[in-house]
Structure formats: structure tokens, C-alpha cells
Amino acid sequence: MSFAFNPGIQSQDNVEVHKYYTGTILGAAILAIVLQAFLHRYGHWAEMIELPLLVTIYFGVSRRNPASGLLLGAAIGLLQDALSHDNPIGLYGIAKTLVGYVASSVGARIDTEHPLSRFALVVLLFHFHQVVLAITERALLDRSAPLFTLHLLIDSLVSGAFAVLLFALLDRLRRTS
Amino acid sequence: MVDIPTRRRPLALLAIVVVAQVLLLAFQVRHTDRPQGRDIPLVRYWAVELIIPIERAGSGILSGMGGIWTGYIDLRHERSENLRLRDENGQLKLRNRELETQTAEEEHLATLLEFRKEHPEAPMLAAQVVGSSTAMLAAQVIGGSADPNSHTIFINRGLNDHVRHNMAVITPDGIVGKIVEVFPNTSQVLLISDRESGVGAMFEGTRTHGIVKGNGGPYPEMDYIVNDEKVHVGDAVITSGEDRIFPKGLPVGVVSEDKPSNPFQVIRLRSAAHLDRLEDVLVLLTEKELKLKESDASAPENKAAASLSRAQPPAPAPPKAGATKR
Question: Which residues, 6 or more positions from B71, have their beta carbon under 8 angstroms from its beta carbon?
Fold first, then answer.
């Protein structure tokens, strides 16, 4: 038994699909992970922003392809797990796989070019990512991870605001047709 | 290849990727068995938790199927055992029936032996036929006459059993009749109640001789008894031996009705043998017709014997043919 997948463009016709130069997505993902690890050394404020999550959301929304979005999320999450010292491989992978799928699915249905919509989308997906992480940790790792806290809310708002700026920067990497 | 609809493909891919990562996690994470404090790989824990119920269910199903099969086999054994016991029961019933028959025959033989002791004058053939202890042959009544005016029965003994014409047929209670037709394995018996039957008889008390004749009814009549002879209801009548068929002294019946008539009394008898419900009878296997002892023949009461032949309808048979004819 095998499955045949077509990772091609599945977005709706009335929503614009953005394309990027070759290696842009991969480079941005690796850079986000590296920066995340680098910034982690400079205090708590760096933990408020998770660059790999923002990159996953951005390219998922921009590509508007659920298959590529979830695969990108899985790759970024697994790489993030691999670089961590105490997380089992798959913890962030699962969470970012789901985030990539949801982001690309949402991006295929609504316009995510407006900064406000980007902000709201990032805030919601930030908490969605956290919920998935918490559930996975509770179910598989027997850890007591919080589903929602004020600190997480602030983090999500900060991430949302930062994502508006970051996404505008990443928009410049788009290939013009 | 399973063709997944295009709209469902991302969802299927998502499921595959997530499940794969969950399994990846399970391989790394260890489950703590709290009661024993031992850590085991989560994937093993899951595998056990997943497989054991299936194994248990499969084992239960197999056990149930085994039980059903064993029950089926046992049921087959029970069925064969039941059939064997049923067959054995049938054989035992048959054996019991045979033993009961043997017991009945022994009772008959004992009766015959007693009869022979009481009547040693009767020449018998049966010493070679049914054993040295008796001269009689037990027979079963197998049928009657189709003619309501003919009082005859059929017995299951015939030429092959050395049954011959004019042999006497009796029961321990009294006389029944005589053989009138003989077939290889069957014989026809003329009952004493038949119109053409006649038996030399006498009153047991007065020794007065007469002839018991059938009238087609249930009560034979004793004829040739003069009106001067005192007869009472209940008087016993026995054979006189004058007919040379029945030995002397066998019960014939008792007087049930007596009324004077001209020239002889009309005496009705209730037969000693139950002629209406005969089942088993005895055939006297006489080698030759009974011969009157000269002393009996000269006795005054045996004058009826001389009249016996006269009382019968024209008899084509020779004098030794007896008191009755058919």
C-alpha cells in the first residue's frame, strides 16, 4: 500500500500564491533556528520570540499549500528538537507540523497580507503551538506543561508584533512574477 | 495503490507525519512503571498495551473456538455413545423379552408335565418333538375365521411341528377344540362352540355321559341327557374320552342353564376355556386316536359313546375319526 501525494499548488484560485527563489525557504528556516539558538544566550527576552515558529507560519501562509506547509513545519521542528539538549526528537516537530498545516490552510482561505491579520494569526498560532506542545508533553513525556498563562499571553503578543515586522522583511524575498 | 482524493491528501500526509513523529518520540521516551520503579521504552509500553488486549481477545476467541470444537467433539462422542447405549438398550430389551418368553414357555411346559402326569394314558409323540418331558406342543393363536358363523382359529403350528388332523387343542383351563386343517406351519382349530363340533363328555359328579355340541353361540350344549337326570347349574362337565380325540377327564365347562325338553334336557354350558380370548393353546400330539379302554367301553355310562356317532351328522370318516366332523 502506498500513498500518492501531489505537493503541488492546491490553493484556491482567488488567493495569490507567492513563490520564492530557490533555497530561500530552506535558508530562512536554518537561519531562524541558528538565530534562535544564538539569541537564547542573551537573556530571557529572547525566549519571548520563537523565530522558527514565525518562519513556519510565514511560509505556510505565503505558500498556501498544506502539504508543503506541514512538511516545512515538521522539518523545522525536528531540527529544533535535534539542537535542543533535553527535548526528545519529535516534540517540536509535531507541534510545528500542525502549525504549518493550519497556517497554510488558513492562508489558502483568507487574506493574510494585512499586518493586523498577520498579528492575530501569529498570536493564535502561537497559543495553538503551545497547546500542542503542552498536550504532547503531558501525554508522552509525563511533564506538567502549562496550556495557557499570562506569561504565554505576553509572549504571544510580543511574537505577534515582531512577526508583523519580520513578515514584512520576508516579503522582500518573494519572487516577482 | 490507494488513490486518495486530492482534497484529502494534505490531511493524510499530516496524519502520517504526526504519527511518525509520535512513534519517534515513543522510541525515545521511557515509561515509568510506578509500582516497580522501572523505566521501559514508551514504544514498548504502548506495544504491550496495544497488543496484549488483542492477544487476550484472540486467545479468548481461540479458547472459545477450542471450547466449541471440544464441545462439538464431545457432543459427537456423546451422540455416538447415546446411539451405542440405545442399541444396547434395544438388545437388552430383546433379551429381556426372550427371557420372558422362555419363562412363559417353562410355565407352559410345567403345565404340560403336570397334565401328562395326570393323564398317562394319552399316547404322545412329543417326546421327540418338544422334549422328553412333555407330549404337548405349545402354540399361539394367530388368527380367527373370517366367517362369523364359523368358530375356528388358526395357530402357528403345522405339519412341520408334527401337528396332524384331529389332534386335540386345549388350555390348562379346559378343552378348546380339535385340528381340522393342517398346513406346513399353520393349523386350523375347530372350537367346541362351532355348530359342527361334538365332544364326548360326562358330568364329573354323576358320571352321566353325553355329547357337548356347539350351537354357534357362546354356550355349547350338552345333549342326550334325559329329563330324569338331575342336573344343576354349576355342575362340572369333563371329557369322557369317547370321541377318541380328547383324553378323559379334561374340563369342558360348567352348567350355566338347564331346562327340560323333549326328549332330552336342554343344558347349556359355560366353557372352561376362555374361547373368546384365546392366546396360547396346547396341541396334544397323539400318535393315534385314543382307544377306549375295554373296561371303559363296557361300562354302562359309556353307552353314550355309541350314540355319539349316531348324534353326529353323517360321518364320511371311518369310525375311528372321532366324535366330530367338519
Answer: none
The yes-or-no verdict on residue B123 having pLDDT over 70 is no
Q: How many CB atoms lie within 10 A of CB B117?
A: 8
At B307, phi and psi to the nearest 5?
Answer: -80, -15
Residue A71 to residue A97: CA distance in whole angstroms = 7
pLDDT grade for B293, boundaries at 50, 70 and 90: very low
Higher pLDDT, B34 or B27: B27
Looking at residue B31, what is its pLDDT?
67
Contact call for residues B211 and B311 (beta carbons, < 8 A): yes
What is the rounded distance in angstroms from the CA atom of residue A96 to the CA atom of residue A99? 5
Q: Are the beta carbons of A70 and B42 separated by less than 8 Å?
A: no
The shortest CB-CB distance from B9 to any of A67, A71, A89 is to: A67
CATH class entry, domain A24-173: mainly alpha
**In residues, how long is chain A?**
177
Residue B3 predicted with pLDDT over 60: yes
Which of B2, B22, B29 faces A94 most closely, judged by CB atoms?
Answer: B22
Chain B residue with CA closest to A64: the answer is: B10
Cβ contact A97–B6 (<8 Å)? no
Confidence of residue A9 (pLDDT cuts 50, 70, 90): very low
Least confident interval from A28-32, A67-71, B58-62: B58-62
ipTM of the complex: 0.78
Distance separating the N- and C-terminal Cα atoms of chain B: 106
Contacting residues for A131 by C-beta, under 8 A, at least 6 apart? A147, A148
Q: What angle do CA A92, A95, A96 make, to 5 degrees?
A: 85
d(CA A58, CA A72): 11
SS3 at position A26: helix
Q: What integer is the mean pLDDT of B283-293?
A: 63
| Mean pLDDT, all residues of chain B | 75
- Which residues in chain B touch residue A105, judged by CB atoms under 8 angstroms apart? 10
User: Beta strand pairing status for B209-213 and B174-182?
Assistant: unpaired
Distance of CA A147 to CAs A84, A95, A150, A151, A152, Å? Answer: 21, 13, 11, 11, 9
Question: Whole-model pTM?
Answer: 0.44
8 A C-beta contact, residue B28 and residue A89 = yes
- Dist CA A31 CA A80 (whole Å): 12
Query: Helices A150-170 & A115-136, crossing angle to 10 degrees?
Result: 130
